Amino acid sequence: MTSFLQILLVGVALATFLAPGPATAQDAIKVGIVLPLTGDQAKFGEIEKLSFYLALEEINAAGGIKGKKLQFLFADDTGNPEVGRTVMEKLIKKDKVVMLGGGYASAVTYAMAGVAQQNRIPFLINTGSADVITEKGYDYIFRLNPTVSDYTSGLESFLTAVVKPKNVVILHESSLFGAEGAKAFKNTCEKLGIKVLMVEGYEGWFRAFDFQPLLMRVKQANPDLVYMISYLRDATLLMQLAREMKLTPKLFVGGAAGFTLPEFAQEAGKAAEKVISVTLWHQSLPIPGAREYFDKFKATYQRDTEYHGAEAYAAAYVMTDVLKRAKSLAPEDIKQALKETDMQTVFGPVKFVSYGKMTNQNRLNTYVVQWQEGKLRLIWPADLAQAKYVYPVDWLKEWGFK
Amino acid sequence: MKRNQVISAIIAVVFIILPLVVTSDYYRHLAILALMWVVIGGSWNLLAGYTGQISFGHAIFFGTGAYTAGILADKLGTSAWLGMALGGFTAVLAGLVIGFICFRLRGPYFALATIAAGEICRLIAVNWESLTNGMVGVLLIQTFRSKLPYYYVALALAAASLLVFNLVMKSKWGFYFVSIREDQDAAESLGINAALYKNLSLAISAFFTGTAGAFYMNYMAFIDPEVVFSLPYISIMAILVAIIGGVATIWGPAVGALIMVGIQETFRSAIFGLAPKWVSQSHALVFGLMVIFVILYLANGVVGDWPKIKRLVVRSR
Amino acid sequence: MTVFFQTLVSGILIGGIYALIGMGMTLIMGVMGIINLAHGQLMMVAMYITFVAYTFFHLDPYLSLFVAMPCLFFLGVAIQKFLLNPLMEVETIIPQNQVLMTVGIAIVLTEIARFIFSSTYRSVTTSYTGKVFFLGGISFNVAMTVAFLFAVTLTIVLFWFLLKTDLGRSIRATAQDKEAAILMGVNSRRITIITYGLGAALVASAGSLLIPIFYLFPDIGRPFTTKAFVITILGGMGSTVGAIFGGLTLGIAESMGATYIGMSYKEMVGLIIFLLVLIFLPGGLKRLTKV
Amino acid sequence: MVGASMAFFEAQEIGKTFGGLKALSDVSFTVNQGEIFGLIGPNGAGKTTIFNLINHYYPLTSGDILFKGKSIKGMKTYQICHLGIGRTFQVVKPLKRLTVLENVMASAFCRVNTFKEARELALDTLEFCNLMSEKEKPAKSLPIAGRKRLEITRALATQPELLLLDETAAGLNPAELDEAIELILKMRDKGVTIIIIEHLMKVIMTISDRIHCINYGRTIAEGTPAEVANNPEVIEAYLGESYA
């Protein structure tokens, strides 16, 4: 018995050792993609990973890059900056990737950007949005998505033209993303003459379950607008409790992230209805390929996608374009090619510019969406709108109390 | 005496030459971490092993040192190496505050108080955003791209700490520390100012732990509260390093550091890539199993239980 | 004022469940004189049991109570018997090695959970999740109210057990004065084993009760371990009545802290109270009530 | 500073209350330099409490304690040791995992600063106390007589002028007892003033110059051994016990 076990163990060990790596390992161009695949933010990681895959298959089917196949090495940052740095290090040192992509949570992305810069490997960020990431003057860091302080640019005109709120309460998860977003929106409100009644941060994970006292305070403050920057769980819980507690401001607005995920509507149910959110993208936008991407994603995975997926999908194409144009696969050449990027993607035009403290930052418009009958519809700007916004909202009716 | 000095000299030479022989960055990285843990394990050992004050809060000093270096570099733009010179001193300040509060308590209550103090420090680091950047942490760019300078700094720090611990333990202070551990009441009646010497032990311990923390900031170039104020991965790890090597021995924690970092990395890398990937995912589990194993079977550590181990090995042959 | 009462109610409701966690811990601490730093992790195990029972067998979390509690009882018995009791014979310089052992157990439990279930957040969405009812303008979370009522019932049962049964009396005696109990012929080894099982079962019940309210992931145990020892020290080691007060105090303090200081300071409020009590009121609230 | 009229050691109406319970009230006595002063009383009379008050193991509730004319009230335990008051514990408190020599060295550091000096002082003291043969053994391996002797040796190594001995003879066999008495007398001859708590009447009556007897925390008699032995109150206090 013992000897059998020993043979088995040795066999397994040998098999793992001798097993050939991925067939195309030799002639593929390796790019590392770091995303949260487990943990708190796994849902976002999943939608992005699927989109990267979708793009990868198309790219390789179309001949890859300079005759070589593109290969994505996915790594899991688990939503933890320290883990993110370790896997980045491994991708760079051990797997010898030519460039890096991904980057979901701002805090993790920020920490990972340090590793990329340190090792001078270009890193194309597609979601991590805190301003500080591209404010450090790191020349190997490029960002495809707009910064969190630009998230509400599309919302501003909606507020001034339609809602005209007098005052606002801002609730945010207190990691880098939420904190910076809240600060930015507070400034926006002050600029627009909207009185900020309350800004309250809550820790982004398990400590956030007990929202009742918080919402009771919001209820007493009686604001016109409740602006929330949340990931998925907290977004769901906040809206569910708001419904239960019959908290009825003129409008609930989400600051993207959790509020646009299909899971938000699934889990929050009725409580998600008519909630408005900022978004960076919508399939109905007149961007070439946007609708095709959305449909293809749905056909392939039998589920909806949203802006996070589009960011990932676009990033894959930007990388392909860059790697095709780069003189060689040396980091400096790839960096140079990234700098010269000027292309159209499903996420919008991509061109990395430097302005103010920012370096290598892509600037894009943002939009406003609303959950209508369980569907996320583009409602603003008016000329691009797919559906008319519903405002004012009779919350009690929407929530099924009437 | 002479023989010990010769052995120490040989060990020192081996460690000085080591990175010149081992050129892989990965192994150098492990060596640097191990040397850092030599310092932390030894520091914990001074306070707990020798002075008998079981701290579950060494992350306080590690974190304070790390943040000193980090904040100086991030906010004032000084070199993080300046922070390394200062990190030890701020950790001592933190230590004096902790000592003032926690030394009123003895035994398990002291241990509990240090856990609570550690958690409070972590929460302060999370919440005092204007100073610490909160959960975002402090991000720097390393001074050197090569591992060598870091290796030698860590080596110097480890050597200095061992030297200091050795000198202290051979002096009056050392006798006093051990006396307090064995019986605080008896010690006081023998003219030992227990409060003073406990604080002295804490201060030395905090100094080296803080300096190690500041070194970590320099070397890893990124810290956040969950990393440097971590209960399991700093405070408990410090205890394990000391215990696995041998509590209340000079070389024990040093041996423990090499073993702990070695085993941890062996599993983290899935036995150098030989084993299937799930092995690497289970490295934290292995960490926990080691805690249990060590406490059950090697409660006095490899150095302390060396006779026992030798006997077992010899007998099995 | 509404905000104040709302905060108070939230604090009391969660405090009831904290009390359940604290009572298990206080028995263990009293009987063995050690801090059980695996307490929250035991709760986490119970939560996963409840989660599995709900997901695969569609068992209501409140019914899983009767699955999770016995499971954890036996887990606790095994831990005490095979991991903690053997340490009594080991002579070491560090007297706290039982405490360290519980840390090891905590890590192992967490990592096993991560191994099986990964770090992904799980939740049990029942028909009553997220529901509230109003009473005098104050909203009561249905799941939390039910959990609170369960906690009260379990507390009463526990008290009956401790006061009226021989075994219970032995446990109480050992918790209050170990040496005296041994002198009076109490088999302390057996008592420690049963107590650890009982403590584990109590915290298991808290886990099952909390699952409709909380998201579940492997690391959820740690903050609860901290809470457990805070409650125990607040109430006074070994005092079950103290644990109830400690639990309620912590619940209310956290809730008030969240409302009036800031949500991110919630944890710190509990810890600071803990340190203050440890230093200025050694012996905990027990000292004030003389129970 | 030390005037002729000044007592060497003086306890002035010292009292101690534990949570409302009076353990000791208004006990006064003086000890002259160079004498052996016995402190007796039935179990729980408060003898050890007096020692604990003298070396500030507990703070005084009332009264004052003067050593060489100066109040030592409020001083810390270790300061009192440095002043020259050493003590032993009734329940011996050896530094278990240290060797006998190390135990004594730890206390020798009270007077000297270097390792070498401490070692010399410790060895001298061990020699004086006749414990040289045991010096390399761990303290925990000593039998009870050895531990009691170590307790005295350790206290002596702090070079006290006044030594408080708490039941150093309890649990010893007759041969050991004689050795203990011999050691105490030897210390006195060396110039150490001694206050001794002892239960064995044989010991205390033979070695003490004067005896102070307390019961229920109060003084009931003081005088020479013969006077105290014949005091009716003392006899009454002890009878119940010795015949029980």
Topology:
The complex is a heterotetramer of chains A (402), B (317), C (291) and D (244).
Chain A: H1 2-18, E1 28-35, H2 42-61, E2 69-76, H3 81-93, E3 99-102, H4 106-119, E4 123-125, E5 141-143, H5 153-163, E6 167-173, H6 176-192, E7 195-202, H7 212-221, E8 225-229, H8 232-244, E9 251-254, H9 262-268, E10 276-279, H10 290-301, H11 307-325, H12 331-339, E11 343-345, E12 348-350, E13 352-355, E14 358-362, E15 367-372, E16 375-380, H13 395-398
Parallel strand pairs in A: 1-2, 1-3, 3-4, 4-5, 6-7, 6-8, 8-9, 9-10
Antiparallel strand pairs in A: 10-15, 11-12, 13-14, 15-16
Chain C: H1 2-32, H2 39-57, H3 61-84, H4 97-117, E1 132-135, E2 138-141, H5 142-164, H6 166-176, H7 178-183, H8 188-210, H9 221-235, H10 240-260, H11 266-280, H12 286-289
Antiparallel strand pairs in C: 1-2
Helix pairs in contact in C: 1-5, 1-6, 1-8, 1-9, 1-10, 2-3, 2-4, 2-8, 2-9, 3-8, 5-6, 5-8, 6-8, 9-10, 9-11, 10-11
Chain D: E1 9-18, E2 21-31, E3 36-40, H1 47-54, E4 62-67, E5 70-71, H2 77-83, E6 85-87, H3 100-108, H4 115-128, H5 144-157, E7 162-166, H6 174-189, E8 193-197, H7 201-207, E9 210-215, E10 218-223, H8 225-230, H9 232-242
Parallel strand pairs in D: 3-8, 3-9, 6-7, 7-8
Antiparallel strand pairs in D: 1-2, 1-4, 4-5, 9-10
Helix pairs in contact in D: 3-4, 3-5, 4-5
Short structural summary:
The complex is a heterotetramer of chains A (402), B (317), C (291) and D (244). Chain B has helices at residues 2-21, 25-50, 59-76, 80-102, 107-127, 129-132, 148-170, 172-182, 184-189, 194-220, 225-228, 231-245, 252-268, 270-273, 277-281, 283-297, 301-304, 306-316, and strands spanning 138-139, 222-223. Chain B has 317 residues and is mostly helical.
From the structure above, extract its key features.
heterotetramer, C: 291 residues, mainly alpha, 12 helices, D: 244 residues, alpha/beta, Rossmann fold, six-stranded mixed sheet, four-stranded antiparallel sheet, 9 helices
